[in-house]
Amino acid sequence: MRFAVSLADIQRAGLTFTADEAVAVAQRLIHNHDSAPPEPPFGAPSLENVHVTDTGEVECRACEVTPAVSEIAILLQSMLAPGLHAPSGLRYAIARALHDVDAPPFDSTGDFSATLARYEPPDCGAVIRRLVKRAHAAMPRYAPSRRLCIAAIVLLAALTAAAVAAIRRHDVRPVVPPVAATRGDDVRPVVPAVAPVAAARPIEPPRATAQAKHPVHQAKPRKASAPTWIDKLRLRWLKNRLALRNDLSRGL
């Protein structure tokens, strides 16, 4: 099975490019441009879109044409760490391609490739294959966590979609009872059979509870209060009126 890995993944795996590996990648990118059709997003070669394979090839699907001198120089500079041991002539050639030194720039990519050939390993393909082998050995220590994150995101998206679909399926809708077709236009709803309800048990009266130890004190009836002087005055007036009425009835 063909194995390809990007330069950015190699760096994320904790590996450092050597000067031979960086020059080999740049030379393969210049002379052995990938014959496969380019894929968007198009742009200059970078650590993210440049891949090396276990067959010793270099691929850049985002590159529509052969990269320019400055683009190759930027890729080389990003591959060579500042503290990495590299020939001073190689770093000077990169600075010259980027116009960082007071020297005439390279006229073409071929001129820049001719200068890089001084630092090129004898077999660029073998150097790239060893690089991919190192990356393949180092990737399992870092790749699982990345794959797990991607799998978790995919699973979360699937669960969210399933939840939304379930909510939509359980929307409130008018309930229409099923009907059974009969002869003519006589259509009657089908009434589901209801299981017979068991006879209700008679309600038993509550059992007498034990008498409380401390009986409840009942309220004593209130004594009739003595009539007040107003009541006495009313009674006297009522008696006088009744006596007057009796006298009048006798006279008549």
Notes on the protein architecture:
The chain has 252 residues and is mainly alpha-helical. The protein has a domain at 4-140: Transferase(Phosphotransferase), domain 1 (Orthogonal Bundle). The protein has helices at residues 7-12, 19-31, 69-79, 88-97, 109-116, 124-138, 143-169, 229-251, and strands spanning 4-6, 50-53, 58-60, 179-180, 188-189. The strands form two sheets. It has a three-stranded antiparallel sheet with strand order 1-2-3. α2 packs antiparallel against α3, α2 packs antiparallel against α5 and α2 (19-31) crosses α6. The longest helix has 27 residues, at 143-169. It is rod-shaped and about 160 Å long. It starts with a strand and ends with a helix. The mean pLDDT is 77.
List keywords for this structure.
single chain, 252 residues, mainly alpha, Transferase(Phosphotransferase), domain 1, 3-stranded antiparallel beta sheet, two-stranded antiparallel ribbon, 8 helices, 5 strands, rod-shaped
Rounded average pLDDT? 77
Q: Say which CATH homologous superfamily of the domain at 4-140 is assigned.
A: Transferase(Phosphotransferase) domain 1
CATH architecture of the domain at 4-140: Orthogonal Bundle
Strand content: 5-15%
Question: What is the count of DSSP helices, taking H or I runs of 4+ residues?
Answer: 8
Class of the domain at 4-140 in CATH? Mainly Alpha
What distance separates the N and C termini?
Answer: 142 Å
- What string gives the helices and strands in order? EHHEEHHHHHEEH
Q: What Rg is obtained from the alpha carbons, in whole angstroms?
A: 52 Å
What fold name goes in the CATH topology slot of the domain at 4-140? Transferase(Phosphotransferase), domain 1
In what order do the strands lie side by side in the largest sheet? 1-2-3
Q: What percentage of residues falls in helices of 4 or more residues?
A: 40-55%
Largest sheet descriptor:
3 strands, antiparallel
Q: Regions with pLDDT < 50 over 5+ consecutive residues?
A: none
Backbone structural class: mainly alpha
Count of DSSP strands: 5
Name the shape in a single word: rod-shaped
